[in-house]
Amino acid sequence: MSVRSPVFQALRLLSAALVLASGVARAEPYLAVQTGFKCVQCHVNPSGGGLRNSFGNVFAQTQLAAKRLGGDDAELWTGSVGRFISIGGNLRANASYAKIPDQQSTDEFAVEEARVYLDVAVIPGRLSVYLDERVAPGNSENREANVRFWLREGELYVKGGKMYLPFGWRLEDDTAFARQLSGINMQAPDNGVEIGLERGPWTAQLAVSNGTAGGPETDDGKMFTARVEHVQNAWRVGASATLNNSDAGDRTGAALFAGARWGKFSLLGEVDWFDDDGIGANGRQRMATLAEANWLWRQGHNFKATFEWFEPDTDVDEDEQTRTSLVYEWSPVQFLQARFGVRRFIGIPQSDPQNRTEAFLQLHGYF
Amino acid sequence: MASRRDPRRRQALRTGALVLGTLLAGCAGDGKGLDVNGRPPGESGAGLPPATGATFKAVQDNVLTPYCTGCHAGASAPLGLRLDAGNSYALLVNVNSVEVGSLKRVLPGDPGNSYLVQKIEGRASVGARMPLGGAALSQANIDLVRTWIAAGAPTAEGPGVVASKAFAVTSTIPAAGEVALADTGSVTLVFNAGVDAALAQSGTLELARVDGPAVALASIEVSAANPTVLTLRSAVALPAGDYLLTVRGTGATALADQAARRLDGDGDGQPGGDFSIGFSVAAQSPAAGVSSMSGERK
After folding, report:
1. Which of residues 62-101 of B touch A (CB under 8 A)?
2. Does pTM surpass 0.80?
């Protein structure tokens, strides 16, 4: 796209307005909280994650990085390849360290994952075909493949195929207690249908899926997942619920989540509760909580602290676990991020894995 | 303004760190009365200390429960793979991988071609190494899984294991002579071939108290994912006592495999004969008798 094109000029005006209005945004929940945006503001997928739309891409180039290489007049990447096709991707490469008590520490380099996204807007604004393919590590593996049709443009849509289900905060960290407990994260897509509403300050989704987290369907039970969120400029609150009817044992879950912005600080919280009939002789009720604080020190520099708590069985005392993380996120230039973090796990003393320490340095490139 | 070397400032920082550390640690359980996996003693299967030797109990207690069940449990387990103690064996052994359908998750006798091993060693052709996002398993734990698979991936050690070319029971949970935990409500049988599910009925399989009537069964289910695994579930948890499990290999109600071979129940290498084992159910788990503030079930 030319820097003189009308679209470019519109995007520049848009990004300039955002600078004045809200500061910085990125495709993560805490940045949505910082800006007061809905997920659909920056993502093709109305419930967030995956391919960024033109707005999201411009945002990434003008608002996220500490410095914009090429200066303000550099040509902007919007993800659009022609009028109908958009592409994008993510690659996360890690250097990590882990220490489990009484075991030798480990450290390694590894590609956490690389993904590419493709969205074909067959009827722009109304009908799209979307693909999310994990291309590393290992062979290519499809994560999302769905058709999205806006029954009312920008307001009401239906989506069918393989997709990530809507539940709680869509965290980047799939290993967070809350995302592990729910089983609904960026590693576990499911096949089904979703209907979503975007109206005023409200965003809501209802999905019906196999409930096998991408595995083959083995019974006639289905999973119902709902998420509703009320978004205001400085705060938001939401709730999710899920019921998975399965021969493996029914599963019921609920979550409350909220976020608020205060100057350069943004706070997120979530409480999850799940009841699994299929675990143990009598079923099991489990809980997880997340508290996250972000301090946007200056553009391109964010400090994140999280505290998580996990109750593996509400019928058993003294088995709780915690996970505390400190993460520094540095975006030196557009489309590049370096993350350094330390995570400390504390659990019952007799379990070594529950008392481990992890550290990581991650290089994240995206477009 | 206090300098960086100000002892009062250092003391304040030290105190703050101590208070913060105490608060964070205080939110975690102290683990009193629990086994290494945070369960009441005995519930994990092998009790304290964890089972040693390359048995399935050891694999469950040392690998699957502590490292895998954070995600792989319950109805929404990733790819339908539930690795908690009650489900793992039936969903692992001789079951095709979802990610690479040409491989078995566990191929008895062949750890190198078992997808489970490839995933924990980080050499699977699809996806990331497991445990996802965490440190690699220790070599000792990987060796434990490899050794168990190389030994044929037996369900349990001890009595009940039969080597036969005829259609036969290879193992049971509980095993013959085992004292099962209180509240046990199911019995699992593993065969050396897929069971004809149409024949898995109450007249063919019977669970009865040694000194009492037959147990009312809620279901007799052949695993759809792995038809070598059959599970009997009682309508209510089995009361404490001695039990006899019988599987008919003779008569009109004989059990047969999917190739219509009748059960070799008596282990003579020929079709026919009833299979039976005895086991007991404990009055209560060791933890249940402890009335301390911690570790008992609420």
Report:
1. 66-67, 70-71, 73-82, 84-87, 98-99
2. no
